[in-house]
Specification:
Largest sheet: 7 strands, parallel
Helix content: 40-55%
Shape: globular
CATH superfamily of the largest domain: Glycogen Phosphorylase B
CATH class of the largest domain: Alpha Beta
CATH topology of the largest domain: Rossmann fold
CATH architecture of the largest domain: 3-Layer(aba) Sandwich
Radius of gyration: 22 Å
Number of domains: 2
Order of helices and strands: EHEHEHHEHEHHEHEEHEHEHEHEEHHH
Strand order of the largest sheet: 3-2-1-4-5-6-7
Strand content: 15-25%
Structural class: alpha/beta
Number of helices: 15
Oligomer: single chain
Length: 399
Amino acid sequence: MNKPNVLFLANSLYGGGVQEFIFNITKKISVVQPIILAPKELYQENFDRNTHVKVERETINNYNLFDRLLYALANITGFQSIYRSLQYKPFIKDLLKFYNIKMIHCSHIYLAPLAYFIFRKWGIPYIVYAYGKEFIINNICGSNPLMYRFMKIFLNNASAIISNCDFTSGLIKKWEIDSDKILKISNGVDHEYFHPKEISYNSQFSLLANKKNIILTVGRLVERKGHDTVIRALAEIRQTNPDIFYVIIGEGPQEKYLKKLANQLNVDDIIFFAGRVSNKKLLKYYQSCTFFIMLSRVIGKNHDVEGMPLVYLQASACAKPTIGAKSGGVDEAVINNITGYIIDPDNIRECVSAMNKLIKDKNKARKLGEKGRDWIEKKMNWELGSKQLDELITKIIIN
């Protein structure tokens, strides 16, 4: 018997936690056959080649001057989600008919208006996924009360809203959503792929061959990620630990600023900006590091904040201790004093202290990493999340 087809609406599959979530959850759910609709974009072959489901790509992101002006206007007025949904609308009818779609999985709140339109016109149920800051009311509606009313309609008509952590569930509740519709499915990690291993350095990793204490951060180079706090802490730490080396994986608008800061503090010689890397290289960086750190924090009036970043879980899966910050849902990805440490993201003294503990006490660092690995295997894997989602899908469309 053929499985029912469901359509995942993707805002982007360019990279990051949302892409990782869609890749893994579509791989693990078993009661339906997922199809993904996504924009044509850079590096799309990296996702499309490795995924196991059908990906339909359309020219949705138009970068001509007129479209940029329209998007800017929509953003100013708070209607960006409706504008974004309208960009997908021309491709929907034929896709729904061709694949006989039975359910919509809206992978970003920006596409909730489109999911609602499909529901009203063709009666196809939908669920919405929530990750964190995008569900902050001001971030999606600005000061537009009309958009706020529209979004409440779009969200309340969803069959369910999937939250990745308790912090995100709290953001959803502020929309006055029926609590029975909110289902928490914690972020997971592929613990078979991300696993501990002693690295033998080849030519690609010769840069790390003689480094004893490798510190790793994986994330976009934006203010929220807190790279600057770590760089400032390095200036002090290297005085007693000359063999430290900091690897930063990711791209973003703060790269020039961070490189300039490192130069000013005379630590640029112990920092490597790796840029965007393949999953194969990413795994090796995790396996090579002494510990993982990312000090995410709340930025600005719109509360630019983390939900539950997957990178902490990936590091734990590789049996590496992690250092996170008291911000958003990070304390659900790093268990303080069990899998790592939670500190103040702007307190350089706390950062220095936590990093020194993991550098100097190798036995403690090893135990934190082992506990992290055990936690991932037992509680933070995609098998558990996909089972919850299978049960929800069955309830909505199969029963």
